[in-house]
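Changelog-adjacent note: as of this version, every example in the card shows the full chain rather than a window. The one below runs 200 residues end to end.
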Amino acid sequence: MKTHATRDKLIEIGADLIAEQGFNATGINAVLSRAGVPKGSFYHYFASKEDFGLAVIDAFAEQYDARLAAIFESTDAAPLVRLRRYFAAGKADMLSCDHARGCLIGNLGQELSARSEVFRARLDQVFRAWERRLVACLEEARRAGEVPHELDAEALAGFIMAGWEGAILRAKTVKSLAPMDSFEAILFRQVLDSELPAVD
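Full-length structure tokens:
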């Protein structure tokens, strides 16, 4: 149990450091020092820094998917309200770090996709899983008559993911939620042809 707890602690601290300064700039010694784990212990838990990075991605993806499930599988709200809750959660996350971190998966995608096929493939898997959540929500919205019937749910989910990740990046650079607010408003009013539903 102690081994699992120590490994989980290293992953948690690694995720924080990577979110703050990037994967390449995050040294193993810094992770071990902040975790209070003796130097030299790292390779007891991970075969390499790449293995550690993949473990961080997997842990983050698992935790984040649980958040997405709570939002998108909720039965107490219409599909487009759930979509707005997803955006609201992203904006709350951005405010909580004073626009400094953004999306860990998006950050790693920018940093590592051109350098490592292993990382690129794993990050793409994560994005595709998120897109499937959006597809299911949009298909439900279409069946409920909340969006135009002719909308292609899969294409739109890809557009939303790409646009939202871009808005998050822009929010970091301008230190403001304005790009995220703008993307959400244009998506609803001009793409989904819907007014912004109220979010409780």
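Structural remarks: The two ends are 40 Å apart (CA to CA).
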